[in-house]
Amino acid sequence: MSNNPIVAEVTRGSRVESRHRGAVAVMDAAGKAVLSLGDIDAPVFPRSAVKVFQGIPLIETGAADAFGLALADLSLAVASHSGEPGHVERAAAMLGRAGLSEEALECGCHWPFDQPVALELARSGGRPTALHNNCSGKHAGFLCTAVHCGETTAGYVGADHPVQVRARAVIEDLTGTRLGPDDGGIDGCSIPTYAAPLRGFATGFAKLVSGQRVGAERAEAGRRLIEAAMAEPWYMAGTDRACVALMEAAPGRVFAKTGAEGVFCGAIPEYGLGFALKIDDGTTRAAESAVAATIATLFRRQGDPVAEAYDRLAAKDIFNWEKTRVGGVRPTGF
């Protein structure tokens, strides 16, 4: 049984119905813990929460500039998007700049995860393609990099392909963790995913936004992706998504990215801090509550009234099918 603390709980009426344990790390670039809950040294798979790390070679190789990628393109390149028409069209346009079509994508196909988006697609007589995959923007970025570097595009999802070798090297550099085969797995979109301590992921984001303990070119590449996502948050997520709400609550001041199985990573650039959290049971509702509470705590420590906006995001009401409030989700232990 996990020894991690309870970081979120779900109420029904006046009672707590469910509890979620997890770990939270907020770090500076030197690796000092500014906020620590639970075991932040246990390796976890970050899943999509570190797409910024994976997207850095798109900038560093010169591919982004060679293909004239705009802010919205860069935001989509680090996105877990909802598969809305604007996402699909931009992913296709990114591929087109590299002379490719959706046939080059090796991320697989699924219906949009957001039910309203999927229902609208079905209602219009459409069927999902690989472009609707929530990772199609990231994969378009991988393919743009491969084309720019003169590499074969087939098999770009493989761990030994140069695209993935570069991505792994960035993750190792930023987390300060040597990643071997035993640390790896395959993500939902078929690329490698690597487990490392929450401490490392949070420190990596702090390095990028502070420019400390990381190469200047790498820091600039990371900041460029983070700033693109903050400027165009809808392309990184979609309508009514938590990542958008978290970034729009303090425009240009917070970067937050979700990952599957209850993970969130991000940064508060002005403080030079990075954060990472993992909910033990993988529950999204708990991760969204905990990440908002984490950000609220950091702003509150600085006496910044924007903390109240994150307090509101951290506590959500639960309604039944008759739209009657029956309980809520709230953070605990912060």
Question: Could you write a compact summary of the structure shown?
Answer:
This protein is an alpha+beta fold and 334 residues long.
Regions with pLDDT < 50 over 5+ consecutive residues? none
Give me the number of helical elements.
Answer: 13
Indicate the proportion of strand residues. 15-25%
Number of strands: 12
Rounded mean pLDDT is: 97
In terms of structural class, how would the helical and strand content be classed?
alpha+beta
- Tell me the count of domains: 1
Tell me which CATH architecture applies here: 3-Layer(aba) Sandwich
Q: Considering DSSP H and I runs of 4 or more, what fraction of the residues is helical?
A: 40-55%
What overall geometry do the principal axes of the alpha carbons give?
A: globular
Radius of gyration: 19 Å
Verbal overview:
Strands 1, 2, 3, 8, 9, 10, 11 and 12 form an eight-stranded antiparallel beta sheet that branches. The chain has a two-stranded antiparallel sheet with strand order 4-7. A two-stranded antiparallel sheet has the order 5-6. The chain has a single domain, classed as Beta-lactamase (3-Layer(aba) Sandwich), CATH 3.40.710. The two termini are 22 Å apart. It is globular, with a radius of gyration of 19 Å. Helix 8 packs across helix 9. It is of the alpha+beta class and 334 residues long. The mean pLDDT is 97. Helices cover 41% and strands 19% of the residues. Strand 8 and strand 9 form a beta hairpin. The protein contains 13 helices and twelve strands.
